[in-house]
Design goal:
By secondary structure, the chain is an alpha+beta fold. The protein has 3 domains: about 20-115 and about 130-190, Sandwich (Immunoglobulin-like); about 200-305, Neutral Protease, domain 2 (Orthogonal Bundle); about 310-505, Neutral Protease Domain 2 (Neutral Protease, domain 2, Orthogonal Bundle), CATH 1.10.390. The chain is built from 14 helices and 19 strands. The longest helix is centred in the last third of the chain and has 25 residues, at about 380-400. The chain binds zinc ion (ZN). Zinc ion binds near residues 299, 303 and 326.
């Protein structure tokens, strides 16, 4: 899941005035009742008697988040506050000057959240789990600047937390004082802060530290098993992208609703990518599914690149790519890492992509309606994942076949990553189509328009697939099938031939 609303400025780009921001987050033994008390100190660019602060009222489909903010208090007499939820705004009236100092409390707005409430702040006596965007109010001078993702500086101090109340976040392990310098939306706000009864494990991959922070006693998932799955997936994915990753990276795993009985036959799990990591949250009951965890682990991890470094210019309109191709590579890289056999890959793609796509009531809806309905309807929400994954399969196999198995979509994805790392370069469908044309020596604008934008079913034909894989179209849903021994098919499909020559540029 990747969502970030970026403010498009019509004004010419201006260097944002650097605000100085200092936060103190205070512990209380009654965290559930009192919340995390956050003290803010901001220095504005010019003297004023009122300052607007941003505190998101909606994050990733969770609405009314300002209900979780209480206890607004000025640091001295003369402060008044007005909260404007529709504008995600706290108006702070203060004594005239440049220094604004006040505090607020972040707490749960219900004693117990439902299994569908993932992205609200969790604050209990024994732990907390709060997104950076739901913890730190920032002056609107930062959020309303014409710069898309402004640079900022902030310090965060953690005050009064007992030594056994573990503190961890996407930036640091166990730190009681942190200095942040970076981008507001994609780094400072795309973060997660946890504390309390979390268990922290770590390993090193090419001298970069990888953390696994989890809490709860899981049915099916032992700490060691999850850690090994993280290591397996991350090793394969970093090798695939030829990217050693950030100096520090964290995978968070937290239970939402835990039930020991069999009253609810299901598992509700969600993953969200973060700056330098990702977060998984799930119900915890006897129906926990190890395969589901590994799938989501692989999917969310891939967003470090697809949707992350390959940043989409048009969010939901590009989800067929950022979610669909992520899903496709979740399956392909699980095959690559040894997590799935070739037979299991075929079975998973049939069951989890093709069958679910063809069962989706909204399957032939046009792409622009996905933008409107993504957060409102789970059928629409799932559509770009499966529609895009089928397109990725089709394209990958076309490139493999037409290049005589010397190139694949893998090469195109790495080239796309390279291009999107250039300053100011975002992913656009136009860039994608230009690259695809180079790899295929054919323009696929027609197929893109018909199958991704208009929503027609993409016909998979046996002659579109690599040798050794075929498709049975005799039923309502296409069914992929092995058409020969698995080992040579796997080798052909993964195309890990280092001697393959680069394609001639046209
Ligand atoms: Zn995703």
């Amino acid at each position: 899941m990747k969502l970030l609303l970026l403010l498009a400025g019509l004004l010419p780009l201006l260097a944002p005035a650097q605000s100085r921001l200092d936060y103190q987050v205070h512990y209380s033994p009654q965290l559930a009742a009192e919340g995390l008390r956050v003290q803010v100190q901001a220095r504005t660019t010019r003297p004023a008697d009122s300052t607007y602060f941003h505190f998101a009222n909606e994050v990733w489909g969770e609405k009314d988040l300002l209900r979780c903010l209480t206890g607004l208090t000025g640091a001295e007499p003369g402060y008044r506050f007005r909260v404007v939820p529709d504008s995600s705004r706290i108006v702070v009236y203060h004594p005239r000057g440049r220094d604004v100092r006040f505090s607020y409390r972040v707490k749960q707005d219900a004693a117990q959240y439902t299994k569908a409430q993932f992205s609200r702040p969790y604050v209990a006596d024994t732990y907390f789990h709060v997104l950076g965007e739901s913890l730190f109010a920032v002056p609107e001078a930062l959020t309303k600047t014409a710069v898309e993702d402004p640079e900022m500086r902030a310090t965060v101090r953690w005050v009064g937390f007992p030594p056994d109340f573990r503190l961890h976040n996407t930036f640091a392990a166990g730190a009681t004082e942190q200095t942040f310098r970076g981008k507001l939306w994609t780094e400072f706000y795309r973060s997660l802060y946890v504390g309390g009864d979390y268990r922290l494990q770590q390993f090193s991959l090419q001298n970069r530290t990888v953390y696994l922070a989890q809490r709860g006693q899981w049915t099916e998932y032992t700490d060691a098993r999850v850690l090994e799955a993280v290591r397996q997936a991350l090793t394969a994915q970093r090798a695939f992208w030829q990217d050693a990753g950030p100096a520090s990276y964290t995978v968070f795993l937290s239970p939402t609703v835990t039930t020991a009985d069999t009253s609810w036959h299901g598992q509700s799990m969600k993953g969200s990518s973060l700056h330098q990591g990702f977060v998984l949250q799930s119900t915890n009951n006897p129906y926990n599914n190890w395969d589901l965890l590994r799938y989501i682990l692989n999917h969310e991890m891939l967003h470090q690149w697809i949707g992350g470094q390959i940043g989409a210019a048009h969010e939901e309109l590009n989800y067929w790519f950022t979610e669909g191709f992520t899903d496709y590579y979740a399956f392909k890289n699980r095959l690559r890492s040894g997590d799935l056999t070739m037979e299991q890959w075929v079975q998973s793609f049939n069951e989890d992509v093709l069958q679910r796509l063809y069962r989706n009531a909204e399957r032939n809806q046009p792409n622009y309606l996905i933008k409107d309905n993504y957060w409102k309807s789970s059928s629409f929400g799932k559509l770009p994942y499966r529609r895009g994954a089928v397109f990725a399969l089709w394209l990958d196999h076309q490139i493999l076949r037409r290049s005589g198995y010397t190139r694949s979509l893998d090469d195109m994805m790495r080239e796309l990553l390279h291009l999107c790392r250039q300053p100011g370069q975002k992913y656009t469908d136009e860039l994608f189509l230009t690259l695809a044309q180079r790899y295929l020596r054919e323009d696929i604008s027609y197929e893109y328009q018909k199958y991704m934008l208009d929503g027609a079913d993409l016909p998979l034909r046996p002659e579109d697939l690599v040798e050794g894989l075929t498709v049975d179209n005799s039923g309502k849903v296409p069914v992929l099938k092995l058409n020969g021994p698995a080992a040579p098919l796997r080798e052909r499909y993964l195309n890990e031939n280092p001697a393959a020559r680069p394609m001639a540029r046209q």
